[in-house]
Amino acid sequence: MLRRNNALIIFLVVFTFLLNGCANKSDGSNNDSSSGNDEKDVVEINIGHVGAPISPQEGAAEIFEDLLEEKTDGSVKVNVFNSGQLGDEREIVEGIQMNTIDSGIISAGLFSSHDPVMAAFEVPFLFDDREHALRVNNGEIGRDVLNNLEVEAGLRAIAIWEHGFRQITNDIRPIKEPSDMDGLQIRSPEVQSYSVALEALGATPIPMSFDELYVALDRGVVDGQHNPLMHVEGQNFHEVQDYLTVMDFAYTPNVLAFSEEAWERLTDEQQELVIEAALETAEIWSERSAQQNDEILEGLKGKMEIINIEDIDRNEFVKIVVEEGYPQYEKEFGSQFVDFLERVQEASDNN
Q1: Please, are residues 190 and 207 in contact by the beta-carbon 8 Å criterion?
Q2: Which of 81, 83, 170, 226 is least enclosed, having the fewest CB within 10 Å?
Q3: CATH number of 42-346
Q4: Is 74 left (phi over 0), alpha (psi -120 to 50) or beta?
Q5: Three-class SS state of 169
Q6: CA angle 192, 129, 297 (to 5 degrees)
């Protein structure tokens, strides 16, 4: 009997000890839970793009991430997934539309199936310079375009960011005047805006994916290509191209888009701060991109023969594209397309 009582006493002591321990752990977990609630108050937004870790998309995304964290006191956290981790651009757009991807940085031309005006952004020689482009993108024209895209594509179009001015390279001859384009086979993205202008200038556009381009240039499948300087350097095109003409051939913009579900996770104040940060990102990245281009151009000296924009009469190229290309744009895309082009040109300092 005594043994039973002793065993019972030991059992009660151990049970009480364990119970107190659980209570303490429970208190601790409540504290952790409180901390977890603070973390849950942070809205995380995943942003996908196809650019490399060093690319226009990544450069802008990093600026946006820092600005938004500062403006929201850390209540909105951005996670950037580069190099197509969330899919190619079409897959990112589809994911945003289906609310399976929060956000993406996508080439404006990719939205042309939803709104033909989006392809108009990439019409060669549309913008005089970065200041002109930024004035349009961050101004009334840009907002009108984004508002219409939201309706047509079923997503939240937040801002337009610079991908860069495209410059032309080739390995046949230096391009100094429009006649130098005659007969050149120029690789071009599958964007009709580029093809119309190249044909007007006498070149033959060859649609081809970007990942096939270096080999095609090396083997002479195409004579040249056009891309922002960041890609000319990053892809080592100087190894397979002799001439670079800096003419600001075409301006390529990217669109920052959110899914409806991700947008609704934000408070009204957070939404306003997202837009504010996105517009500031456009300005900061434009300045930073210009600096990087100067550095890249300096680094390409001696590797390619460089024809600077001051060495050509850019207006000669512009005149041909406007006179011969614009009627073709109207024929293929309609008057709304050309109306947009004219509206953009009116926003130039030269008008």
Answers
A1: yes
A2: 83
A3: 3.40.190.170
A4: left
A5: strand
A6: 90
**Lowest-confidence range among 106-115, 241-250, 298-307?**
106-115
- Burial letters for 41-71: b for 16+ Cβ neighbours within 10 Å, e otherwise? eebebbbbbbbbeebbbbbbbebbbebbbeb
Task: Determine phi and psi for 60, rounding to 5 degrees.
Answer: -70, -40
Task: Answer for the pair 195, 206: CB distance below 8 angstroms, yes or no.
Answer: no
Rounded to whole angstroms, the Cα distance separating 169 from 167 reads: 7
- Alpha helices by DSSP H, listed for the chain, are 2-40, 56-71, 89-97, 117-120, 130-137, 140-153, 192-200, 213-218, 229-234, 260-264, 268-300, 314-320, 326-333, 335-346
pLDDT, tens digit, for every residue of 45-74?
A: 999 998 888 889 999 999 999 999 999 999
- CB-based contact 162:181 (threshold 8 Å): no
pLDDT tens column, 283-320: 999 999 999 999 999 999 999 999 999 999 999 999 99
The answer to whether the beta carbons of residues 64 and 78 sit under 8 Å apart is yes
DSSP label at residue 301? B
Helix (H) or strand (E) holding 247: strand 243-258
